[in-house]
Structure formats: structure tokens, C-alpha cells
Amino acid sequence: MVAINSLNIDPPLVNTACAWVTDYEQIRACFECPYTGAVTTRTAAGIDEGYPRLAGVHGVAFSKTSITSVNTYAYSPHPLSAYLAWVKQIMDESPASLKPFIVSVTTTEPAVLRAMIETIQAFRHTLPDPARVAVELNTSCPNVKAGAPPAYHFPTCRDAEEYRASPLGQLLRVIADACAVDPTLTFGLKLPPFVHGGQFAAFVDGLALFVIDGGRPPVSFFTCTNTLGNSLMPASTLEGWQGEDMDGKDMMGGAGGEAIHALALGNVLAFARLLAEREALRDIKIIGAGGVTSAEAVKRMHAAGAAIVGSATLFGKMGPAAAFALLSDKEPQ
């Protein structure tokens, strides 16, 4: 078992927020899988309104030659309110289970994030065990054309004032305030793949400005990494398209799976080393994700510094029962 603040994950294997946990049935299937220690919902971008899903625009496909995916999705067509209702339904249907949930949300507006947290907190406090629900802020979707993901901007800040005024800095202030009021609230960040050492160091420098009461980190975990944006895979290299009117299309979007495994491992290792050097940040755990397609890849993630390992592409291709059994080096049940 791995403890992330008040969240207990056993075994230390989860799905990550992705298109294959969009609906109730998909979330339920991940929950019922005996090899997942927690279930992450797809990223919701609004409390009561979902993100538009466009035919011929939003979809995913798989490489013919490796377990690699490329997707053009943004966020879930379902709102946060739907995911909280489904989490409650699953908990009510399985009262003996203690498996927790990580509810993924996103926004660039501090007031919206504050409202999302208030909604989630009100929900958590209706549960017999509020610690079973954690929150992940997705700061890294590469397919939203409105602007750069907030986490990419953060390492470009030059001083404390810029960090605090940055889009992610304003969101971190909201998170830190909420976690200061309720230490049982487990909050994390889903991060993009960074590509040079200065980005990692600058990100950690900025995060340290939001330490709570001089001793507690503002977040409890990182999910490293999201997909790698601006990746082009021609139709001739692809198969298994999913999404309305997407068959046979060239795909330019976020690459996941084996194509980004080395980069994801490097991100996990870089953050693990830097966090260990900061007393106030060393309790932050890492969920290692990106190209986790075998039991050997799980071991590599743990060796790099991941406390928990996450997967999306493999279970999107195989289904949760087969995929997570493979990652656990077990037979499917």
C-alpha cells in the first residue's frame, strides 16, 4: 500500500485520466478490476457543463507497430457533477470496497477552481470516509488551442512575483488555501512532459513558494506525464481509430504509450531527485505514467522514483481487466 496524504492506494497501480474513463460503465470497469488500487476519472472542465465533443475532430488511434496512441481530445463531455454522482453510485453499489477515486478537473480561472473545490468538498463530507476521494488538477492537456498548458508557462517565471501572478501560480494559491483549511484533502497536479533540466528546477522553485505553514507541500502528488503534444502520426501508420467520423484520418495531437516512455521515465527521475532535496516538498509522491505497457515498464517507473504507476494507452487498447493484469504480471480474472 502507498499512502498519498490521506489517500491509500493498494496495489500501487491506477488508470490515468483519459478518454477510456469517460462514462459510468468505463469507470465501473476500472473500479471492478482487482489490479487497480484507485480509479481516476476523465478530466472535467466545468461543474455542470461538459466540454464539447466534436465529430471529425476529437478521437484517438493506435500505432500499427507499437503500443502507442495519438489523441486529439481535450476534456470530458461530462461535467464534474456527473462524475461525483457516478463515484457515489459506485460506492453505494460496493459498500465493502475501500478503493479510492481521483477526480480530475481543469480550469485556468481561480474562481472556477475554487468553486470546483467547494463542490468536491461538499461531496466528500457526505461520505463515510472523505479520504477516499482525491483531486487532480490537469495542467497539461496539449490539445486545447486557447493557450499553452499552465504548467508549461510556470517554469518561465523569473522571480517570486511572476510565479505567484502566473496562471498556475494563481491556481496553486487556491489549492494551498483549500489544503490548509482541510489537511485531509489530497490534491495533485497532472504535468506535461518537460524536456530540459532547467524546466524541472524552475518548476520546483516555483512550487516551493506555496508551501503551507512553512512545512507542508501545497500538493500531495504529481502525475508525470501527460501526452506529448503536436505529435503527427499519418493515417498509414495507424489503426483502431475511435471517435465519430475519425476513421482513416491523419492524427496530430498528444502522443502516449511506448513512444514517450523514455521521456516519461526521465521526467519521473528528474522530479523525484529534486523533490527529495527539498524538505518541505519531499512528501510529494509521483504517479509515473507514459508508455507503461508491460510489467517491466512498471518496474522501470518505480526504479525512476514513482510511488504509483499509471496507464492509459494499454488499457485503452486491451480493456482494463487484461491490461492491468498484464502490468501486474498476473492472469486476467
How would the blueprint of this fold be written?
Layout: E1 2-4, E2 7-9, E3 13-15, H1 24-32, E4 39-40, E5 60-63, E6 68-71, H2 80-93, E7 101-105, H3 110-124, E8 133-138, H4 150-153, H5 160-165, H6 167-181, E9 187-191, H7 197-207, E10 221-224, E11 228-233, E12 238-242, E13 251-257, H8 261-276, E14 285-289, H9 295-304, E15 308-311, H10 313-318, H11 320-327
Parallel strand pairs: 3-15, 4-7, 7-8, 8-9, 9-10, 10-14, 14-15
Antiparallel strand pairs: 1-2, 5-6, 5-12, 6-13, 11-13
Cofactor: FMN
Domain Dihydroorotate dehydrogenase catalytic: 36-323
Protein name: Dihydroorotate oxidase
Key phrases:
TIM Barrel; 5-stranded antiparallel sheet; alpha/beta; oxidoreductase; globular; Dihydro_DH_chainA_dom2; 333 residues; 34% helix
| Spatial sequence of strands, sheet with the most strands | 3-15-14-10-9-8-7-4
Low-confidence stretches: none
Mean pLDDT rating: 97
* CATH topology (level 3) name: TIM Barrel
Task: Describe the global form.
Answer: globular
SSE string, helices as H and strands as E: EEEHEEEHEHEHHHEHEEEEHEHEHH
Q: What number of domains?
A: 1
Find the count of extended strands (DSSP E, 2+ residues).
Answer: 15
Number of helices: 11
Q: Helix proportion of residues, in percent?
A: 25-40%
**What structural class do helix, strand and pairing data support?**
alpha/beta
For the termini, the CA-CA separation is 21 Å
User: For the report, how would you describe the main beta sheet?
Assistant: 8 strands, parallel
Amount of beta strand: 15-25%
Global Rg: 18 Å
* CATH architectural category: Alpha-Beta Barrel
User: From the structure provided, what is the oligomeric state, counting identical versus distinct chains?
Assistant: single chain
Name of the top-level CATH class: Alpha Beta
CATH superfamily: Aldolase class I
